[in-house]
Amino acid sequence: MKTKKIFLAAIFFTAVAFDASAQKGWRIEFSIEPHSSMGGDFQVPIDVLNNNSAFVALNKKFRPGMDVGVDAGYYFNDKASISIGVHYTSLGVDYKDYMWGYNGVTATLSKTIAMSYMKIPVLFHYVRPITPKISSHWAVGFYYGVLTNYRDESRVTSSNGSSVTLSAEDENIINTYSDYSGTHTEVATFTTKPFNSNDFGGIVNAGVQLLLSDKISLPVLLSYQVGFSNVKNKTSSYSYQGDTYLYWDDGMSNRPNLNLDYVNSSFGIKIGVLIKLGTSVKK
Q: Do residues 41 and 232 lie in contact, with contact meaning Cβ atoms separated by under 8 Å?
């Protein structure tokens, strides 16, 4: 809630900068943003052979991703404008490997979550000249995202040569395990998927804008996006051989992952090509 209030305040202060008597016009921007994303916590048992074991959170790593999109906007004056766009964004999180040792065998867990969204960002922009060719550029707003695909993959490899890979994607969970007898695959079907279909969050951009010509500019901005909603479906379930199971239930006495939230966030560098399509002066 506090984060939402900060974004609303920033939008208000941007909006009061609008001057209705100044030059107006339409704009379009094409942008690409390489970024690093982060997601929610995931916990594992310290002792996999003890049903009552305590759990520990996996250390997280930023996951590289990309945001590509196009935005249409309107200038209220030479400094202030508003835009709405359509973007394709890849998000997720990588977890650092976790190791167990038992009966002379070392097992290593590797886990990653990858998600893709179609986003509709709405931004309020404020540009202030520094030199005739360089301006500071600030933007703040919101986005609405629709999940297009996801993959939640966990892989355990053992020093004895065996391995197990559990991959949740689309409608199915695929469990692939290999040992001395060969490779085997089991498939279960989701009754409710592990992630919610929608996301909503805030955006803050800050950087410089280079004037290439009267109509074309090059914004180069630091971009931070953070979700306001939990996108994890804690009641997600799947069906296997006639029985139904909770996806986020690890099957042990402690079930911390049933209650942990998953919130998307990313930090990157947004590079755009901004084109003024026309201007008019209000009398």
A: no
